[in-house]
Amino acid sequence: MTAAKAQLHLIHGASYTEREAAIAASLACLPCNSAGNSAATDKNVVILEGLPDGQDILHPTELLHVSRIAPGCFCCIGNLSLRVTLNRALRQKPANIYLGIASDAHLDKLLLTLQDPAYTNLLEINSTGTPNS
Questions:
Q1: Model-level pTM?
Q2: Which residues pair with 11 in a beta bridge?
Q3: What is the DSSP code (8-state) at residue 38?
Q4: Radius of gyration in angstroms for the set of CA atoms belonging to the chain, rounded to a whole number
Q5: Residue 73 backbone zone (phi > 0: left; psi -120 to 50: alpha; other: beta)
Q6: Can you name the residues that pair with 64 across neighbouring β-strands?
């Protein structure tokens, strides 16, 4: 039996707070899982690039893992911080992974990294967009 792939939601642009708020709103709207249970019973992961503008909107719980990565273009710094954080997140077997990045300047290179053979059996890129889309 093949394990379900984590659904990757990529949010980019706008301010850190707007990205975090968009992710929080998306988490609140998750549908029921395949077993008919509330999505609130599934483990979800949020990886945010950058530093918070003020108060954090998302707080870690037993079912929500939140990681904050120092700002910087992932592809230009070699993807190391992203890969380490993403690999740690995938070990938790989450239903959803939300990746909030500051800029879409090198979005195509980031998507190539996420489509690397190491991730193809683990991730399904579900959506990409800005906080206002």
A1: 0.87
A2: 100, 129
A3: -
A4: 14
A5: beta
A6: 44
Pairing of strands 64-69, 123-129: unpaired
Q: Which residue has the tokens 């249970």?
A: 37
Around 113, how many Cα atoms within 13 Å sit in the side-chain half-sphere?
20
pLDDT in tens, the chain (133 residues): 467 899 999 999 889 999 999 999 999 988 765 555 555 568 999 999 888 877 889 999 999 999 998 887 776 666 788 889 999 999 999 999 999 998 888 888 888 889 999 999 999 998 788 787 6
Structure-block tokens of residue 116: 């690397």
**Contact present, 8 and 126 (Cβ < 8 Å):** yes
Taking the C-alpha atoms of residue 119 and residue 19, their distance in angstroms, rounded to an integer, is: 24
CA distance 38 to 5: 18
Q: Angle 80-90/107-114 helices, nearest 10 degrees? A: 40
